[in-house]
Amino acid sequence: MQHVLKRNRNLHAAGEGLISLVSIRNGGPELNFTETLPTEISVKIFGELDVRSLCHASLTCKRWNVIIEGSDNLWRSHCLDTLAVCHREVDGDRSNGLSWKVTLVRNYQKSCVKRRWLKGKYSNIRCAEDLPQNNMCDLDVETWGEILEAELER
């Protein structure tokens, strides 16, 4: 039986930068790269995805979900990015024994909102009615203090 590897450049569902390998057997079914490569290599490929793409990829099929959900290191690097914005929250979750993924899920939206505030995206907001409801989440008093300091410096 002959195996031919080809590159599939349709990156729409898997995220940019990911090249999926497809193994085709003569007259046989197509296998995705996670079925043909060692798990460690699949984890490295998934490690190139951003958080949103990683979450979407975990919904693609059972095999991808098992690999993505089972690799705490995939979530660790993204969680460390969140740590740069939400120090107290991430440190607290990790000291409470939560996994990298749970810590990331608990703090990701908060870090995105906080990052936008600190960059000045919401500097033109004058009242609560001007807040974009879909992009907001609860922030603690210390975070609001940091945001206020950043706004006063502008």
UniProtKB/TrEMBL annotation:
Q: Cross-referenced PROSITE patterns, in alphabetical order?
A: FBOX
Domain F-box, by residue range, is 31-78
The record, for Pfam families, names: F-box-like
Q: Name one GO cellular component term.
A: SCF ubiquitin ligase complex
User: Which UniProt key words apply to this protein?
Assistant: Ubl conjugation pathway
Pathway info: Protein modification; protein ubiquitination
Provide the leader sequence positions.
none
Q: Which InterPro entries match?
A: F-box-like_dom_sf (IPR036047), F-box_dom (IPR001810)
BP GO terms, sorted: protein ubiquitination; SCF-dependent proteasomal ubiquitin-dependent protein catabolic process
Return the PANTHER family for the record. Answer: F-BOX ONLY PROTEIN 48, F-BOX ONLY PROTEIN 48-RELATED
Q: What is this protein called?
A: F-box domain-containing protein
